[in-house]
Specification:
With about 120 residues, this protein is mainly alpha-helical. The protein has 4 helices and 2 strands.
Length: about 120
């Protein structure tokens, strides 16, 4: 049986990168402009109120986050190394995820067909 330790982040479900193999950095303020563009189109970019984290909602560890996404935790580790995947929090050497960030990451990847590339910024 072959080992999966040589998988690239894309092979474990990460978003594809450009030809350089590097994830392009957003320009300053582009996230804010994108929020305004979505709001102008009548689409609220934030998750529904029933999916927002409460201030005291506990952070998720790798295992909980991977289970929620249906992935192995090594995939999350590879995504972090490659600068991909949902945003995370470092507390000392511990890695944690805010539940609302993980949910927003999933919502941002909703597609209606296999040819749907998602919104282009």
């Amino acid at each position: 049986m072959m080992s999966n330790h040589n998988q690239t982040p894309h092979e474990c479900g990460a978003p594809a990168t450009g030809t350089s193999g590097r994830r392009e950095s957003p320009t300053p303020g582009s996230k804010q402009r994108n929020r305004h563009a979505l709001a102008a189109k009548g689409r609220d970019p934030s998750p529904p109120s029933n999916q927002r984290s409460e201030p005291d909602e506990p952070l998720w560890d790798e295992i909980r986050t991977a289970a929620y996404l249906g992935l192995q935790r090594t995939c999350l580790q590879k995504w972090r190394w490659a600068g991909q995947g949902p945003p995370f929090v470092k507390i000392g050497s511990a890695v944690r995820y805010r539940p609302h960030d993980v949910r927003a990451y999933v919502v941002a990847r909703l597609r209606t067909s296999t040819s749907d590339k998602g919104s282009v910024a």
